[in-house]
Amino acid sequence: MELLSKTLARVKPSPTIAVTQKAAELKAAGRDVIGLGAGEPDFDTPTNIQEAGIAAIKAGKTKYTAVDGIPELKQAICEKFKRDNGLDYVPAQVSVGTGGKQVLYNALMATLNPGEEVVIPAPYWVSYPDMVLLAGGEPVIAPATLENDFKLTPEALEAAITPKTKWFIFNSPSNPTGAGYGWDELKALTDVLMRHPHVWVLTDDMYEHLAYDDFKFCTPAQVEPALYDRTLTMNGVSKAYAMTGWRIGYAAGPEKLIAAMRKIQSQSTSNPCSISQWAAVEALNGPQDFIPQNNKMFVRRRDLVVDMLNDIDGMICPKPEGAFYVYPSIKGLIGKTSAAGTKITDDEVFATALLEETGVAVVFGAAFGLSPNFRISYATSDDALKEACTRIQGFCAGLT
Questions:
Q1: What is the helix (H) or strand (E) element at residue 101, kind and residue range?
Q2: Cα 331 to the chain's mean position, in Å?
Q3: Which CATH number fits the domain 63-285, given the four candidates 1.20.120.1810, 3.30.1490.480, 1.10.10.10, 3.40.640.10?
Q4: Banded pLDDT at 176 (limits 50, 70, 90)
Q5: Which of 373, 374, 306, 311 is closest to 36 using CA atoms?
Q6: What are the φ and ψ backbone dihedral angles of 363, each rounded to 5 degrees?
Q7: Domain boundaries, the chain
Q8: Is the pLDDT of residue 15 over 90?
Q9: Does the keyword Repeat apply (predicted)?
């Protein structure tokens, strides 16, 4: 009898975590490494949110809570959805989990039967397909190419939907590209979904508040209210509030779905950290003025990285509308050889050679389902980004 399950064989470890770990190992060994793999703001959690967590500890709010969130946090989430998105939910329609990843996983585990399909635009966040596979479903990848600004076209969505489709996963602004869908672009996709009433919509709005220039965020149930009854709208406090380690994600949707997700969570992790929940209440209800201030820094960093990468012959780096990633194409570099003698056959080889020869850690594009590209997270200091891009320029200049 085998120790490990056949289900586990369907999935692979997270490539982004693997890159971050490799960079940490090289640093520990004394290498000068700049890690651009992790999607994590370098800002501290705002002081008022920190203090709310400390106050919760001092007040003895350290016991078990309701499985999927304290009433105060659920109410704050309902108010957030109304305030920011024009969506009306009641607390019974809200689920709070240990990060957005758990919320998505709970939803897929609670709904997928063997062989049912989930449409996922590529490039995608690395965990989507593997969570679908763990839940017994089948990911169906719909390409969103550089020529279309990494955005899924209505035609590509229509082509991907079959009678077996259970979910459509939608992420805007996107990880890994930063591409954001405007109202009209999203309406074109929701028009397709309206023609397929058996398809549910799972939105990942984690980067909602990281929107730049003239881009205005919108979410599917907001654009097409008729999708409200078959949409799970997910969000969290990790990115905009610099609370990655606090591990709080949340979603709102039909009560039947939320109850099923609660059942899954009750038999896995139970409640999210009580202290983190109280800090999240303050994050959602408290001052929001630091978000546009942080975004100004993200815009500056984005522009620095985009400009420096676009100076490289053979590389194309679109300017994203949101999040804190760029996803440059290296199509013009494939087939060349590095100064150390490595032939660049694909984006994984490129990323490995870049790390070994320059100490810059990025994530290769195949991990996100679209090659030949790589992802840079610019959620780090200007100085680190300038040095990293200078090294990338030097590495590419040495290709022959």
A1: helix 100-111
A2: 24
A3: 3.40.640.10
A4: very high
A5: 374
A6: -110, 130
A7: 8-44+290-397, 63-285
A8: no
A9: no
Q: Is the pTM of this model over 0.85?
A: yes
pLDDT recorded at residue 392? 98
Distance in angstroms (rounded) separating the CA atoms of residues 197 and 181: 22
What pLDDT was estimated at residue 25?
85
For the record, the structure tokens of 309 come out as: 């990468």
Distance CA 369, CA 122 (A): 5
CATH architecture observed for domain 8-44+290-397: Alpha-Beta Complex (3.90)
Phi/psi of residue 117, nearest 5 degrees: -105, 150
Backbone angles phi, psi at 141, to 5 degrees: -90, 125
Pick the closest to residue 395 from 331, 351, 347 (CA basis): 351
Helix, strand, or coil (residue 135): coil
Compute the mean pLDDT over every residue in the chain, rounded to the nearest whole number: 96
Q: Is the dihedral of CA 355, 151, 170, 135 positive or negative?
A: negative
Q: Specify whether the CB–CB gap between 186 and 205 falls below 8 A.
A: no
Question: pLDDT band at residue 148, thresholds of 50, 70 and 90?
Answer: very high
275 CB burial (10 A radius; 0-12, 13-18, 19+) = middle
Query: How far is it, in rounded angstroms, from Cα 304 to Cα 77?
Result: 35
Q: Which amino acid is at 300?
A: R
